[in-house]
Design brief:
This protein has ten helices and 13 strands. It is of the alpha/beta class. Helix 1 (about 10-20) packs across helix 6 (about 185-200) and helix 7 (about 215-225) runs parallel beside helix 10 (about 275-285).
């Protein structure tokens, strides 16, 4: 049986590496296939949402599991729109995972949120995610397919972390009193998805976040201490001159509970806080400045 990953990007690559041995075939979709993008044992094919599918219906028909990592656009979810009927008819398909975001919760004033909390999307981007989640859940109910929703916190890991930003000179310590962000190491996302493959539950929704929502400036300061550097100076939020997208993240403040992935899926996070993760990344050579 095979695994199909719609949107073979950063998270999809790590997930494929984590579960490759479980499947006879792993296929990932990309907008533009190119050399060096596929991991070991992964086939890449083109899918751009505009009808270029390169045999995807036949591949889906043989799939046992499908992970959807392509964001929705203004017209809806491109995977569901183009391949809903094919997914509904696939005879061996037992698991569909849809990667969403904790941004669907919007702002809760720094309060705790879990999977039952009110959704208050504050941006068009997050509103489209809410609509896509519901479309996938409706699809599961209508077809009997086992759909799971994974609401991801801010993703980091090898090549994408505060150590790398410090080495590149792009790290900033922006301070907004009371502000916390939620984050998750990409390897722990893969662990959660793999656990769900073993315990599929129709219409399941899971928050995928670590144990410690934390002020972003604290993460940068800790990374700097690991590298023996002075941290960047603190910049008050009001003076930060952020892009509209970056400013939208600071407009939302919440503490995301990960209780369900621990209690239902039995996941022990490899990196329960940013400290363990940054120490491991630094030991692996992350953050070394080019000579």
């Amino acid at each position: 049986m095979s695994l199909v990953i719609f949107g073979y990007g950063y998270t999809g690559r790590v997930f494929a590496e984590h579960v490759r041995s479980r499947f006879s075939r792993v296929v990932g979709t990309v907008r533009r296939p190119g050399p060096g993008r596929a991991g070991p044992g992964v086939e890449l094919i083109r899918f751009d949402g505009d009808g270029h599918d390169e045999g995807l219906p036949e591949i889906i028909a043989a799939a046992e599991a499908v992970l959807v990592s392509i964001p929705p656009d203004e017209t809806g979810d491109p995977t569901l729109e183009m391949f809903g009927d094919t997914l509904a008819a696939a005879p061996h398909l037992r698991w569909i995972g849809y990667l969403s975001t904790v941004g669907v919760y919007g702002d809760h004033g720094g309060g705790r949120v879990d999977e039952t909390s009110e959704l208050k999307p504050a941006s068009d981007r997050s509103l489209r995610r809410v609509q896509a989640e519901q479309s996938w859940l409706d699809f599961g109910q209508d077809t009997g397919r086992c759909v799971q929703i994974f609401r991801l916190a801010g993703i980091y890991g090898p090549g994408q972390n505060a150590l790398v930003n410090l080495a590149a000179g792009t790290a900033r310590r922006i301070v907004k009193p009371g502000q916390v962000f939620n984050r998750i190491h990409v390897e722990d996302i893969a662990r959660v998805l793999a656990a769900s493959l073993d315990r599929p539950r129709p219409e399941a929704i899971y928050n995928v976040s670590d144990d410690e929502p934390a002020p972003p400036q604290d993460v940068v300061a800790y990374a700097a201490s690991l590298l023996g550097l002075e941290p960047p100076p603190e910049t008050p939020f009001e003076q930060a001159r952020l892009s509209p997208m970056a400013a939208s993240f600071y407009a939302e403040n919440k503490r995301v509970s990960n209780r369900l992935i621990r209690e239902e899926l039995g996941v022990d996070l490899a990196y329960p806080t940013y400290r363990e993760a940054l120490r491991a990344l630094q030991a692996a050579g992350e953050g070394v400045q080019a000579a």
